[in-house]
Amino acid sequence: AQSVAQPEDQVNVAEGNPLTVKCTYSVSGNPYLFWYVQYPNRGLQFLLKYITGDNLVKGSYGFEAEFNKSQTSFHLKKPSALVSDSALYFCAVRDIQGGSYIPTFGRGTSLIVHP
Amino acid sequence: AAGVIQSPRHLIKEKRETATLKCYPIPRHDTVYWYQQGPGQDPQFLISFYEKMQSDKGSIPDRFSAQQFSDYHSELNMSSLELGDSALYFCASSNRDREYGYTFGSGTRLTVV
pLDDT band at B30, cuts 50/70/90? Predict the structure, then answer.
């Protein structure tokens, strides 16, 4: 079975400060991990993914995420937040050995960046 | 670059009516996924198709059916609509063998009144 947890419903950060949106996962094998962003009444936009290789993955809009196998985490980070980053962020996981190609999504974290 | 196209963008139906949602995947993507996202909820997987065959089935109600056509576009058919079916319906596509990312469409917002 595969699952993903986003422990924070909401993250508040001041513009210009670094931001972190947390994600932990559970898989029986090795994970494929993804981050998506959703703006109000819009679709899910792909930010970045971890398949294999370097643990630090760089994605769109200055976001990056670090894969930590020992802590089963894939936290999303950005060094300097923008007000325009305010949106809903979803972490997703797929178990490579799970036999399914379907990603499971977390509940989402609302990021609010204050001016 | 071409993206996943969904139509219509918005749809309003009455209870017990039927609705058909369409999804046009990225060219050369062989897999289509349908998700339902209720208000304030995470996307819930409904059903997927790989090379025009049903691949995986999630929490899709029996009132719903879907298929993928020869041109790889997919349609989600929803009958006997209920108020609780009001949601954002996403389609995503991927190329199963060459990349493991999923590209989502902008969604169809279905409102059942």
Answer: confident
